[in-house]
Amino acid sequence: MLSREQATDLALLIGIVLLALFLRVYALDIVAWVPDSYDRLGDAGRLASGRLPQSTIYPPGVGVMMAPFFAVLPDSLWTMQAVIAGSGVVLVLVAYRWVDSLTGERLAALLAAGGVALSPPFVFASRDGLYDIPNVLLIAASMWLAGGMRRMPVWALILYGVMLAVLVNLRPNNVLVLPALALILVATDRVISVRDVVSILLSRPVLIVGATGTLCCVLFVVMGDWIGTSASAPITLGPAPENLVYYLYVSGFRAAGLLFLVPLALVGAVSLWRAKPRHTMAILYVIAIWPVLYAPFDFTSSRYMLPPMFLLLCLAAIGGASLLSRAQAPASRVRWPARYAGLAIVVLGLWFTAGSVLLVANWAETSARSDEGLAREFRPDLDDLPEGSLLVGAVSRAFHHTSPELDYFDLIDSTLTTGSSASGVDGMMSAIAEQLSEGGRVLYLHSHWEQGQDFHGDGQGQFVLYWEAITDHFDVTSVMESAGKRFTGETWTLYEVTARPGSSQ
Length: 505
Fold this sequence. Notes:
- The protein has about 500 residues and is mainly α.
- The chain has 23 helices and five strands.
- The model has no long low-confidence stretch (mean pLDDT about 90).
């Protein structure tokens, strides 16, 4: 029988979970991106049907995570989106359970769960067709469970090792989470010598988890041909200082977060340090290393900072609860911090709520301005093409699952395979010439990639070279232009490609 206090906490948690679910599924429409969403869609479907993944860009972690769902649900973007949204709801529960296990304070746990449920970055990522929410979920779950490794049965240790392997193969940079897991694992150990370290490394839990994770990682490498491309993302120190400032600002929840959330997180870190210093070190390590890890990459995105943002929310919840618990103290010097905490929680709650409600209200426009939104406009025309027609373009992945009767020449694959767009032009020209000589139809889908988009931000893409080569040697006729524009401002245009009169093509 639950006590009155426990029943109240349970009711509040259920309410938070239902709110999180509502914000993640209400008026939901697919938002998907080339190549990310469609590569994972294809690999998940292949794994679910017993075939190997084919992506040469991404490791198979997302496909491995999605495959069990694809085995029982339709092979579609909607299934992927359901898993992503569901992961966002589960993340709320993980925040609650982890903070509760760290502090024993249900108020702190409820504040953490509420923050993750309401925070606009987590709401958006849970509705988006990318994999950042499953990524954060596995990081959070691995840190939460690491402290209990020694009590796990063998089957649980094996599953934990598989989870870590999937985590590393979601995004290889996640390997930097492992030192944090080690700190949490040895939270109650006295480590003062090399012998102590060796004893921990040779313990049964570490050996089982390490062996399982290593074997799975080797298997994932053998399964696909993605390492070369994954490792080729350009790293340069040029934009690193500017990117670091941006990531620190984003991970601190921007201006309002710096005023209200970061101070609470600092209080939470001090409070948690007194009880669990190594857990605190692990959390602060991940918060600190993540902006530094991503700063050297040319391409920047705030979604990369979701792991430190999640941890910062948890610390802020601990800090807020710690200050509020002193509200009944008679000394005014104690009451003022409690009043600040109450004000901060109200301001952040209103700010989060307003941002998430606005985000959900505008979701139809967000979907229409994504790659999937533009692709939807062209599908009726592509469905009318004769079987075996050739579609050339950098966004052809968006049609593989809906128009399998067509043939495709994908410009991203061509660029990655040959090393540059300039090197890939000859292969494209040969494919078009062969198709036309056999009496087949050729269409070219001109997209944002030809209008300045670059795959890695290193200047090697130059997808306009493909378009220039086609217009130099073939006649092109506009078939249709998208009514909508991508969020970056570009439209897509479908062209019919035909042999130029008098040409030898």
